[in-house]
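Narrative of accomplishments. A recurring question from our advisory board has been how the design workflow behaves on a single, concrete structure rather than in aggregate. To address it, we present the structure tokens for one chain from the evaluation set, followed by the sequence designed for it. No filtering or post-editing was applied between the two.
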């Protein structure tokens, strides 16, 4: 799983989790800033958001098995909005299933992923 694929998975979960409860402007800002589909390149709507995420990763290897823990850790680093509830109750099995479905389909950034 690539850095960008994990970032996109985090975005999908946040967007779905807060879809009906986006009254908090700070949460709305996080989701808007994270949007990985605004630009054609790999990144986020706000380039600083993706850059900070890459810095957070610090080169660590991402697998489906460890990606939920990494995602939870990353959400804890976002200090202007508490978005940790989006992953708090997700099981490893649910997350892995979502990841496998996402990775199995053609997607932005998927061409760079090593099989």
């Amino acid at each position: 799983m690539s850095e960008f694929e994990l970032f996109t998975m985090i975005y999908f979960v946040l967007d779905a989790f807060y879809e009906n409860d986006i009254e908090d402007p700070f949460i709305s800002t996080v989701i808007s800033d994270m949007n990985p589909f605004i630009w054609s390149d790999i990144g986020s709507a706000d380039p600083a958001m993706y850059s900070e995420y890459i810095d957070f990763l610090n080169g660590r290897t991402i697998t489906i098995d460890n990606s939920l823990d990494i995602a939870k850790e990353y959400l804890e680093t976002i200090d202007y909005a508490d978005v940790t509830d989006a992953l708090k109750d997700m099981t490893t099995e649910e997350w892995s299933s979502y990841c496998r479905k996402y990775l199995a389909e053609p997607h932005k950034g998927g061409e760079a992923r090593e099989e």
